[in-house]
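User: My instructor asked us to take a sequence, write out its structure as tokens, and then describe one feature of it. I'm not sure where to start. Here is the sequence I was given:
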Amino acid sequence: MLPRLINLFRSLSLESPALRALTMSSLVASVGRGTFITISVVFFSKSVGLRASEVGIGMTIAAVVGLFAGVPAGYLADRVGPRVVTIALGCLQAALILGYLAAHGFVAFVVVASAVSLVESGLGASRGALIAGVVPAEDRVRTRAYLRSVTNVGWVLGALPAGWALQHDTRGGYLAVIVLNAALFLGAALLNLRVPEVPPQPRADSGPRLVALRDKPFLTVTLLNAVLCVHYGMLNIAVPLWVVQRTSAPAWVVAAATALNAVVVVLFQVRASRGTGDAAGGARAQRVSGLLLLAACLLYALAAGRSAWVAAVIVLVGAFVHVLGELRQAAGGWGISFSLAPEHAQGQYQGLYNMSFAFASVVAPAILTTVVVGWGWPGWLLFGLVFAAAGFAVPVAVRWAQRTAPELVAS
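Assistant: Let's start with the prediction itself. The structure tokens for your sequence are:
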């Protein structure tokens, strides 16, 4: 896995010094993110002293707060320049992570988590604008695919120091990892200094400032992508609960499915992005994604009532089909979001489109646990049909967006 990614890095980095800098920044940031995600729940519970329900409620509140940062931060990146905004937000992220060291009690936890969520949401928007600014249009989707592979490697590497902290299970160990997170986020931010400067984009002579919020077709495409993004919660929430509560498959299948997902993304995300470099290609990819996610839902449902090994095989096959749908959904989304965004407003459009994942993260836990785990196979079927319907609706919405784009710019 790593040798193949290294060879890909060498071939792509020869093309672009900017990509080398983006790669190193993404890798360092994802190591920090992987470390934090791995220890966060245990840290909040044992060190901050929160109940599990308080951690869940607090993270949900923070995710909702973060929904409102993407478009304004993207607008700022367009007007000021995405590199300076990305660096500033990255440094602020590092400082805010240290706030967890002093967070004692539920209210302090929610305040810090909400501030971190706001900055992370804005960082996603400005980073999207930065990629659009330094990478030629025809290479943006491939670049995002490559960086996603790098990010997954970073998450795996980040689990190593987190595992050390969990093994020792001391407050000092957890605090040391939090400080390491801050240092990694700061380093990732400063590595963006090696990315070429992107000049600010002049706003259109007329029309609204936050033009993305007035773009009804793009809002529709974003909503459809949010529906498809619910599948991320399937692997993290629905599948583990389904395996443990409703099938006889051994619990290790959950870890195997997660590992399979990570490996496939690292190895094949770039390949899966072929043909998605424009809005039409991205729309076709998301239509295929909807069908693959339907198939994955049906496979997961079939695991119930089987013997342990048959159920395990079915779950793993479902996880493989699931990750194929994930690859096409992600690649299609990049093609759509970059292609439909006016060049002078890439930041705010990336910020709006990134809300798809954030919104899905907010609603997925409650919906998936109620419908899938609660209803059983009818819930899986319902979700599969919803994914398929959303996938088929994406090309229609994209064509609508392409027809009305000139009108939006002129309004």
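For the description part of your assignment, you could build on this observation: The longest helix spans residues 377-410. Try explaining in your own words what that tells you about the chain.
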